[in-house]
User: Fold these one by one.
Assistant:
Number 1:
Amino acid sequence: STRLRSNRRRNDNKRDVEWDNIVRTRNLHLWIFSLVGLITAIALSYFKWSERCWQLGDVCDEKFVGAVNATLVTATIANTVNFRTTEFFIEAGQAVLTGSTLVCVFQIYLLYRLRLRERRREWSGLSEMEIIDDDDENTSNEKKGFFRDSYDLWKSSLRWQYLAEVILHLIHPIVYIEPHGGLYQTIYEVTEIFIFVRLYLLLRLLYIHSDIYKFRHNIGVHLGTGANITVFGHAVSTAKIVFYKFPALVVGALTVSTISVSAYWMFVVERNNNPQFVNLEDCLWFAWVSVSSIG
């Protein structure tokens, strides 16, 4: 009996390690495609600004001179080589940005399918292997139904997490609304800044590679809280777990993120109004000086 329990515990631990590796891989894929979208959005914004038509002379219609973000695509007076090149890069950049966003949404769907299966294992007390290994077809079908009905995604708090992540990734800048100006211009600028919310995924990556996540089942059993560690007498957030595990990395990442996001925010908001913020390099320098000194 002791040997059987030991073997079962060893097999359970092996399955937990394999499962965690799958979850880490899904999160890594999501982070990579989110990062591709973020970098593309920054590059696209900077490229459009550098291709302002009034900086390029006679390819710009006079009525667009000095207009907000008037690129060759919206303000050209001739089908020039510059126009075709600019149009190609802007549309290619938008295609990469939107495409990576849709891939992120699909990755989120796959990730939450894994989380749903994990919750069902916890709530039903069954694993997929126990259902598959059952030779009795009727019993196997009953177990499948019980496993499936033990946890309903759309009746749980997991539903709101899933919808929130999908919405956070779907909000991204779309260049085609910008030329309309006015409110559309403001919406475009807001989405340019909002895309930095995707950086929250870095926090999750650090957490799922920590020892606390690795041994969460053992800790949960010891504390009587299950696999989802949510209380240690008080709320323990993912941010705290990551900070205590990687303090130097978290502080460094927060510093770099603060400088980068602030610089980009100043670039997007002030470039049309303040000549000192017309390029990203000046904005980065301003943000660095402000963070590292009294400003």
Number 2:
Amino acid sequence: TLVITVALCFNASADDGKIVIDNVVYELTNEEVYGFNGGLGIDFGEHYVATDFLYDKQEKTISEKIIITDEIDGIKVKGIKDYAFYTDPVKKVSLPNTIEYIGSSAFRDCSQIGELILPSEIKYIGANAFFGLEKIESVVIPERITQIFPYTFAMCTDLKSVVIKGNVTAIYEGAFNSCKNLESINFPESLKFIQEGAFGNVGLKKVEIPPNVDICEHAFSNCKSLKKLVFKQGGNSKYNEMLEEAFFKCYNIEAIYFKALPFDYAYIIPESVKDIYFAGSPSLWNKHTTKEQR
């Protein structure tokens, strides 16, 4: 393993104990990282965290790349601090696989970044972390991520494809809001709920919902390209019956596929729907729809 030291890289050690390597500022820490909404802290042990990027703000030049090193004097670099690179004018970022967490708004409004490759070992990505990365076109969310926090990828206007590899259980408010060119995303079977505005104003044409997912009001609002909904199984949420609310202002939905229905719910179908497909008996369908809906 290559051990990068300050002397070897001709970098400076600041008076306050911080270290600068390739214009990236690091500090040593053993503080726990706390999740969204006061969740339990995660102990990453003693490690370095990237806190800032040094460049001449007066020159207003765009840096080609931020390179995060993997370790300093044998101690791993595991994190990126909240707001570490907020609004920095950089085109590329290189993240080593030692990175396990990225703080809130860490790369927010770094609008020149054109590619985002998340480290395979990452466990936590804070709210707004990649808000406004307008030029990225695809994201692969690694296996150890279990929650996608508020507005993490919002306003990534060129984002077209999202692949979720792991067992994500929650997609929070506004997570992908206004990703207007988003065409595809897979929802894992582990998913339990999608919050308000998570996919508001996105470009999805088809949405396939796994079993037992709570879909909050306006979760998919104003998705004008959306034409097809597939429900693998009816859920247990009070919101699942309110399709008009969950898909508010999705005026072009033409077809809904129900592979099963929950009991004791009466679905309210959006007016634009022309075709409804149900993998069950007509009597069961009649039991769960009103006369006006049939």
